[in-house]
Each structure stands twice: as C-alpha cells, then as structure tokens.
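Chain A, query sequence.
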Amino acid sequence: MDTKVTLSFDAEVIRKAKAFAEKHNISLSRLTEFLYKKMTESSYKSLEDIEISDWVHTVAEGDVKYTSKTRSRKDLRSEYLDSKK
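Chain A, predicted structure.
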C-alpha cells in the first residue's frame, strides 16, 4: 500500500531528478522509494556508510545539507497557505 509523504528539496535537484526519472522510464516517486529502500535494507552506522550507486550522483551535485528544523502543523499550514497567494 502506498503512503503519501511531503518533502522539500532544492528546485534544481528536483528538476534534475525528474529528468533522470523520465529518461529511465520511472516515476520520481518510485525513484525516491528505491533510494529509501536501498538505505533501509542494511544497517548503517552513519550516512557516509550508505552505498549509493553512481547514477544517483548524476541527479544531485554538491554537498548534502541536513536540517533538523522542526515546525508545528500550524506553521506548516500557514507556510502552505502563504505560498498559494
């Protein structure tokens, strides 16, 4: 069963990921699911231990930025509604 999730990425990364997915006849959702599955199939001690195929590097360039910014549902809702104005 599929479950929806909302994620935020850099616009350029998404543009490249969509192009990559289309070129390989796969949806962006399935591409993302594939990557998450690869990460969770094994037990890794750190993010650097995750082996990701070279083809993933064609999708994104530059250093990864991890954030731990926690926002309330109210803040997320306001941000969403503001973006629709």
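Helices lie at 11-23, 28-40, 54-57, 73-83. The mean pLDDT is 76.
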